[in-house]
Amino acid sequence: MKKIFVLLCTSLALLTACDKMDSNYKAYVDEHQTYAPKVSGVIARSSELGSVTLRWQLPESSLPKTMELVYEESSSKSDCITLDKLVTGYTFTGLLEQGYTFKIYTIDVFGNRSVPATYTFNPIPHREGNDSGDEYADDADWFNLSLEWDWENGKAKE
Fold it and tell me: What is the pLDDT of residue 128?
C-alpha cells in the first residue's frame, strides 16, 4: 500500500511540474515566419523563340545573399535554378512556346526565403512585359493606348 501511495504521489508531482514548461522559452521564440526582402519591378523580354530574359530590381537590404529562380510549365512541371550570388537578370533558354510562371526568391544570410516575385510570360519573340502582366515595356505605353468603341456592333473598332 505504501508503494502505491509513493508511486501515485510521484506521478502526480511529475504531471503538475511539467505543466508550464513552455513558459521557459516561449518569450524567445518568434512564432511568425521571417522572410528575406523580395525583388521588385520585374520585366520580361523575349528576343527569340524559346528564350525569355527577366530583369528585376534587387532589394535595398544587405541581408539577401543568394537567389532561387523557379519556372513552371503549366502546373505539372517545374524546375529550380539556384544562384550563389545576387543578379539583376537571367535568361531562360530552351523553352517551349507556351505560358510559363516564373518565381524569383532571394535568400538571406540566415537561410530565410523571400515571398516570391511571380511573373507569367509566354516566350514569343519581340514581346515585352512588366510585372503587372501587361504586354507593354513600361506604363507610359499602357496609358497612351487608345481604343474606339463601336456602339452599334458592341465591340472595339479595328
Answer: 66
What pTM does this model have?
Answer: 0.62
DSSP string across 53-84:
EEEEEPPS-S-EEEEEEEEEETTTEEEEEEES
Let me know: does 92 contact 52? Beta carbons within 8 Å: yes
| 28 SS3 class | helix
Q: Tell the residue number behind the cell numbers 505605353, with chain if given.
A: 141
**Alpha-carbon span 100 to 121, nearest angstrom:** 5
- As a whole number of angstroms, the distance between CA 112 and CA 49 comes to 35
**Overall fold of domain 40-132:** Immunoglobulin-like (2.60.40)
Domain segments of the chain as ranges: 40-132
